[in-house]
Specification:
single chain, WH_DNA-bd_sf, PCI_dom, PCI domain-containing protein, COPS7/eIF3m
Length: about 375
């Protein structure tokens, strides 16, 4: 078995038993046998700890590298073997190395869909389970996000998980500064660019994140941060002025100016409704710089995106807003939400106590009747 740890690659094995060489040539095992052989190899790795514990990491690393090489053949078999290898290992360091290889292989072969449920269930505890510091956790979360950005049969679910992974990376920069914080700028720029491109995201919760805020301090990312802030706290006029100041910004992100303006108009409408429970069509038309006939379709779109709950009065040309989503959900919003939840919790506890008291009185009454 130890000779196998030195191999740098697995041979490209036949895809089906029908592809196997005829007797007399150098036979390669059919797929069923291949799975068995790889399963045995994977289970041999942790057994090296019995005689030489320090060899587990290099053995696992070499086998994972061999399994992940030349990914065009037997993709599912190799991916299953990598998963088996990860599961049989006990060393957090070895599991981390294998998981990185597995994610890279899934990205290269477009097979990350298989790993989506595992990533969704386990990513939050990788640092604890594998004993990772912040730097290595970020590396692993980034590799998972990269893998899930490939071709997918469930693009919406994969995209949502990518955003959760990147948000988790950004959260790890809370309370850091200097060079370490500067290292978070690429991830922050990626998250901001993804938000600007998205036709479904209209609320951004990370404006106050240190890594996102640090974008304003670098000359190459300052325009991106300025555009984000404009969309979250400014109006349509501010947005047009920003685009005029940085005409190359949207093309560099692959965003059509018309699509960005349409998104800004919806977000500005949500911002307007957040502070005005009753709006006239004329107010909306003036604030968003749109024609009169565009007001109602824009309201319908915002309601359809669940940014507003409102009643449109077509005769009076007004809209009554009962609920609206904030464009940026910051610390103040979280504190307000926590206060509301505490009030609800207190009300539920009081209701529970009243129910218990009435139950006690009822039991006393039944006891008295029986007596």
């Amino acid at each position: 078995a130890r000779r196998l740890w030195g191999m740098h690659n697995l041979p490209l094995l036949p895809r089906t038993t029908g592809d196997c060489p005829t007797p007399g040539t150098s036979p390669l095992p059919p797929q069923g046998n291949l799975e068995s052989v790889l399963d045995i190899l994977c289970h041999l790795v942790p057994r090296t700890a019995l005689s030489s514990p320090q060899q587990v990491l290099p053995a696992a690393t070499k086998l994972a590298a061999a399994l992940a090489a030349d990914g065009g053949s037997h993709v599912q078999v190799r991916l299953q073997a990598l998963t088996t290898l990860y599961n049989v290992l006990e060393s957090g360091e070895a599991r981390h190395a294998v998981l990185l290889r597995t994610l890279g292989f899934a990205r290269a072969t477009g097979s990350a869909d298989v790993l989506l449920p595992v990533i969704r269930a386990s990513a939050a505890t990788w640092a604890r389970d594998l004993g990772l510091d912040r730097v290595r956790e970020r590396e692993l979360l980034s590799a998972a996000a990269d893998a899930l950005e490939g071709p997918s049969s469930t693009p919406r679910e994969s995209a949502a998980e990518v955003q959760r992974l990147l948000a988790r990376i950004l959260a790890s920069y809370e309370g850091v500064a200097g060079k370490e914080l500067a290292g978070g700028r690429p991830v922050a720029a990626r998250v901001v660019a993804d938000f600007l491109r998205s036709g479904e995201a209209f609320t951004f919760d990370l404006l106050g994140n240190p890594a996102v805020a640090s974008l304003a301090a670098a000359s190459d990312t300052a325009p991106l941060h300025f555009l984000l802030k404009t969309m979250l706290v400014g109006g349509v006029r501010d947005f047009r002025a920003t685009l005029a100041e940085y005409p190359d910004l949207l093309p560099s992100l692959g965003i059509a100016p018309e699509a960005a303006l349409a998104k800004m108009q919806v977000m500005a409408l949500a911002g307007l409704a957040h502070v005005n429970p009753v709006l006239t069509f004329e107010q909306i038309q003036d604030a968003l710089e749109i024609r009169a006939e565009e007001v109602e379709p824009l309201l319908v779109r915002a309601i359809g995106k669940k940014l507003l709950e409102a009643r449109i009065d077509q005769l009076a040309h007004t809209v009554s807003v009962s609920k609206s989503a904030p464009r940026a959900f910051g610390d103040g919003d979280w504190k307000a939400l926590q206060a509301t939840l505490r009030v609800w919790q207190g009300a539920l506890e009081r209701a529970e106590q009243i129910a218990e008291d009435r139950k006690g009185l009822l039991q006393q009454g039944l006891t008295a009747i029986k007596a």
